[in-house]
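(Fold this chain)
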Amino acid sequence: MDEQKKQNINQASEQLTDSARQSFQMLADRTVALQESNMKLTQSFFQNFMDQLQNQTEGNRDAAQNLQDERQKQKDAFETISSEATNAYSEFLNSALSFYQETMTSATQIARQNAQNATRMAQEGSQAASEVMQNTAQAANQATQQSTEAANQATQQNAETGNQAAQKNTEATQKASSRASNR
């Protein structure tokens, strides 16, 4: 019987060892599977995060470009308005001068006996009209230049603000990316 007991003990030991080995193998396989699953989840999280950062950066670039395009449109519109205003004022002055010249011609024909007085008055009026026209043209040019400068400054400030916002967003994106990579 001793031999039988030894065999039973050896067989039980082998079964226990085999069972323990299978348990440890199953546990090791499960641990490897969990690690692979965790690694895939982490990679997916960081990939999604980077995709979101890239999309946000592209959106900011597009917004900055749109601001710059709008600034150019505003500048073009302002230049058109300024040009039209100057042309309209110039036409007004030309029509006033034309009317004045026609009136002077009629007055000269009607009042030949007062030719010297009419000539003197016409010369004085012409000088005054020239001075007024010069002063008005200078004032219109100054107003146009000041308006153009103001519009350019406003559009530059808008573009700078948009660029600063895009830069801050890019910096925030880089910081977030740096923090994410440090973790």
Remarks:
- The CA atoms of residues 1 and 7 lie 10 Å apart.
- The longest helix spans residues 2-110.
